Amino acid sequence: MTEKVKLLAIVERGKGKGNFTTFSTQTVENCGFGGAGASAREAMSDTYVALQEMSELKKEEGVTMPEVEFDFRFDVGSFFDYYPIDVTAFAKYIGMNASVLRQYVTGLREPKEETIKRIREGIDKLSRDLGKNLMVDRPPVSYVE
Q1: pTM of the model
Q2: How far is CA 21 from the centre of its chain?
Q3: CA angle 59, 60, 65 (to 5 degrees)
Q4: 9, 22, 75, 122: least surrounded by Cβ within 10 Å?
Q5: pLDDT per residue over 51-110, tens digit each?
Q6: Tens digit of pLDDT for each residue in 7-66?
Q7: 16 Ramachandran zone, left/alpha/beta (phi>0; psi -120 to 50)
Q8: What are the Cα distances from residue 67, in Å, to 18, 41, 72, 104?
């Protein structure tokens, strides 16, 4: 049975457009993994390409790499690239200045820890609200008797 390893991998957005990178926080067989791309998804996909290439290289050396699974975590900019959430609407939802949040998302400004906490709490709140099954399950007029 093949060994399975789960690695934490960070997805970051650099300044400007199309500048996303990933990096694993641990190594396997003395190998770290990372990727780059024009979007968060591309950078994440490139991380798997790096893993495949390293696995093939290690195989040639007679080393069997374990099965690796990445646990991707996003910074503010890569989160909003990966998930199609309107930044302005989200800022309004959590009571934040939309212009400032856009600057965090694009990498023009770096949020402080308390700001990241506020954004995380907003994401958690949105997740809970969406999980409440707030959508009606039939046309609204059918509820009226």
Answers
A1: 0.82
A2: 11
A3: 15
A4: 122
A5: 999 999 999 999 888 999 999 999 999 999 999 899 999 999 999 999 999 999 998 999
A6: 999 999 998 788 999 999 998 888 899 999 999 999 999 999 999 999 999 999 998 889
A7: left
A8: 30, 21, 16, 35
> What is the CB-side half-sphere exposure of residue 35 using CA atoms within 13 A?
23
Q: Measure the CA–CA gap between 44 and 23, rounded to whole angstroms.
A: 9
C-alpha torsion angle, residues 111, 115, 117, 119 (rounded to 10): -90
Angle at 39 between CA 33 and CA 43, to 5 degrees: 10
Here the tokens at position 80 are 């909003």
**Is 66 strand, coil or helix?**
coil
Q: How far is CA 137 from CA 44, 67, 121, 133, in A?
A: 36, 42, 28, 9
